[in-house]
Amino acid sequence: MQITTHDRNTLEIRPNEPLAVEFTSSWHFESGVLLDEIETQEGLADWVDAYRFRLGMSSGEQISIGDEDVDVALRVRAAVRDLLDALVDQTSPPPGSLDLVTKLAGRLDDTTVAWPAAGPHLVWPDDTPTIDKVLSQVCASAVRLLTSPRRELLRRCPAPSCVLFFSALRKTQQWCSPACGNRARVARHSARGR
Ligand SMILES: [Zn+2]
């Protein structure tokens, strides 16, 4: 399955977003309908597969997602969104969300890097569940984003029917995508017409 945002391959249009931002984007509008890519076991497994290299996984690494993993993933995504919301709104996040994200990020300490001919990848202790690997990487990305100058670039897209965070890589960038800019312009125009 291809992971899409505004009807386009997400990995192609947003190759430079931090992994944490990409993970929050798994909940988004598609053709005017709010959808959640990771709310099912299959959907979450597809997301992990699409992002496997950004998650530090090798091409052959097995992905195994259980039913209960979906609940955990949704809880962590909500916590990451809390932190990004707090950053954009310049408020304090719920302490529970910050605790959860920093705790999961700390699990990366258990990894080493293997460097076979095919290129480096992360090695986790045996029997580490896929979901632990995924969420640790997402949370580590969130912690790096929050504590680096990169946070200054973070925005929440103000277009109607959009819930995405994005990085304003150009100073004048107001929207997450050209599609949102167009929709916002149309909405402004019809509001003026009324
Ligand atoms: Zn947008």
Q: Describe it for me?
A:
The chain is an alpha+beta fold and 194 residues long. It has a single domain (4-193), classed as Jann2411-like fold, CATH 1.10.3300. Helices cover 45% and strands 12% of the residues. The protein is built from 7 helices and 8 strands. The chain has helices spanning 10-13, 19-24, 41-50, 67-89, 95-105, 130-146, 178-193; strands at 4-5, 8-9, 27-30, 33-36, 112-114, 121-123, 154-156, 165-167. Strands 1-2 form a two-stranded antiparallel sheet. Helix 4 (67-89) packs across helix 5 (95-105) and helix 4 (67-89) runs parallel beside helix 6. The chain is globular. It starts with a strand and ends with a helix. 32% of the residues are buried. The model has no long low-confidence stretch (mean pLDDT 91). Zinc ion binds at residues 157, 159, 162, 164, 175-177, 180.
CATH class: Mainly Alpha
How does the overall form come out from the CA principal axes? globular
What is the share of helical residues? 40-55%
Uncertain segments are none
Helix-strand layout with pairing:
Blueprint: E1 4-5, E2 8-9, H1 10-13, H2 19-24, E3 27-30, E4 33-36, H3 41-50, H4 67-89, H5 95-105, E5 112-114, E6 121-123, H6 130-146, E7 154-156, E8 165-167, H7 178-193
Antiparallel strand pairs: 1-2, 3-4, 5-6, 7-8
